[in-house]
Design goal:
The chain has about 425 residues and is an alpha/beta fold. It is about 30% helix and about 20% strand. The chain is built from 12 helices and 14 strands. The strands form 3 sheets. Strands 4-3-2-1-5-9-10-11-13 form a 9-stranded mixed sheet, with helices on both faces. Strands 6-8-7 form a 3-stranded antiparallel sheet. The protein has a two-stranded antiparallel ribbon with strand order 12-14. A hairpin with a 6-residue loop joins strand 2 and strand 3. Helix 8 packs antiparallel against helix 10. The longest helix has 15 residues. The protein is globular, with a radius of gyration of 22 Å. About 45% of the residues are buried.
Length: about 425
């Protein structure tokens, strides 16, 4: 049973271990690895988080956790956010124990809260290595334009502005929330806040995490990966939507919560779970593992290929998003078509070589979440935004501020 109340400290848990004749001796060595699961679950996904925590416990019960620690920061539909630590209570039993409670004055999608939690984890654990799993809704680079501050209520006959934390009115926004969807319980879930990708990158310290895994829809975009290039060595994500159960943590945690994680093994376990699912409805999945240290070689190729290139027609591109998002297309196919329109572009073989070094693992079923076909020859595991200069929308102007745009596209006058 997952601990649901604030019950004590590490010393309390160690006392419980020591007083149990069957319990293990507490580990007193250095902390080698910490994995932080940052879960924005104050939305329709909360029941899935409860299941995921139970899956983590199921896996941990049969693992040697000496020198290993897993923490879960969660914000639920009600109550204050809490930071939990995975603790072994008996030789074959673990549970999540709350170790810190946070005020709800800051939304969990506010960059200040993200930075605060990461700093707390580092101070509490002082580990040699860290991994980060970002858990919630996701829509890639699509901006929410959240102010994280004063919000004007756009209601009929409303005559004044209301300062209400970091919130926006759902009914007056498109269905965008970048990473995260933090609803406010005091307003019956009508208000929510999100983190744009540039803000997320600023909130995460450079070079702290050796991997970042987005257990959320649409986050495996080249723009997102490049924005986070200084934040991790390896990136794991999904270019399409993923079913709400998300990652099967009981199958992946044995690969992830290790001194040296096997991310390819974890991604394979994730993919095989869905590809071989007993229910045919759930037999859809996409996933990629990318070596972020090799992304500059990809950027070098794209900078050369995109100069004087003609943006390919959208009708011929493999699309990964619904009509109200992006749109997001396959990055590999998009780049090859861009290069083909540019007589001075490097060869396609050169692109395939840099992608082979960049993409450690990729897999996709023959259909996506919406049962649209996925062509294997056009599947790179990574999506991209189809940029064209004539687009003057707010989304396109936001795209101009991202590092990937500045790195690879010929700059235009704003």
């Amino acid at each position: 049973e997952i601990a649901q109340c604030l019950v004590g400290s590490e010393m309390c848990i160690r006392d419980r271990c020591d007083s149990n004749n069957d319990g293990p001796k507490p580990y007193d060595g250095p902390t080698k690895r910490v994995v932080l699961l940052y879960a924005v679950a104050s939305n329709n996904l909360y029941s899935n988080l409860r299941s995921d925590k139970a899956e983590i416990i199921k896996a941990a019960n049969n693992m040697n956790l000496d020198g290993l620690s897993m923490l879960v920061y969660q914000v639920a539909p009600t109550g204050n956010p809490q930071l939990f630590e995975l603790k072994r209570i008996k030789s074959d039993s673990c549970e999540f124990v709350p170790i810190k409670e946070y005020s709800r004055e800051l939304y969990s999608t506010d960059p200040k809260r993200i930075s605060e939690v990461i700093a707390d984890v580092k101070n509490i654990c002082n580990a040699e290595k860290y991994g980060l799993i970002l858990w919630s809704h996701g829509t890639g680079i699509d901006p929410s334009f959240s102010t994280h501050g004063v919000v004007e209520k756009n209601l009929t006959n409303a005559t004044e502005s209301e300062e209400f934390g970091n919130s926006v009115l759902i009914s007056n926004l498109p269905l965008l929330y970048s990473f995260g969807s933090d609803n406010d319980p005091e307003k019956d879930g009508r208000y929510y806040d999100e983190t744009d990708i540039d803000e997320l990158a600023e909130a995460i310290p450079d070079n702290m995490f050796d991997f970042i895994w987005f257990d959320a829809c649409y986050m495996s975009g080249i723009e997102t990966i490049y924005q986070l290039r200084n934040k991790c060595d390896y990136f794991v994500g999904y270019p399409t939507e993923v079913y709400t159960p998300g990652m099967p943590y009981d199958l992946t945690i044995p690969y992830i919560l290790k001194d040296n994680p096997d991310l390819k093994g974890a991604a394979e376990a994730f993919f095989n779970y869905y590809a071989n699912h007993a229910s045919s409805t759930y037999r859809v999945a996409t996933v990629v593992v990318a070596d972020v240290n090799k992304i500059e070689n990809v950027a070098d190729y794209c900078k050369s290929a995109y100069s004087f290139a003609i943006t390919p027609d959208a009708n011929g591109l493999q699309k990964y998003s619904r009509s109200y998002l992006g749109p997001f297309y396959d990055f590999g196919q998009y780049t090859r078509l861009m290069a083909q329109s540019n007589p001075d572009a490097p060869s396609e073989e050169e692109f395939e070589a840099v992608m082979d070094n960049f993409v450690v693992y990729k897999a996709a079923t023959d259909k996506d979440f919406n049962f649209n076909p996925i062509s294997p020859e056009n599947y790179s595991g990574i999506s991209c935004y189809r940029f064209y200069e004539a687009d003057s929308s707010d989304k396109a102007l936001f795209y101009h501020t991202l590092d990937w745009y500045k790195r690879v596209y010929p700059q235009i006058e704003e």
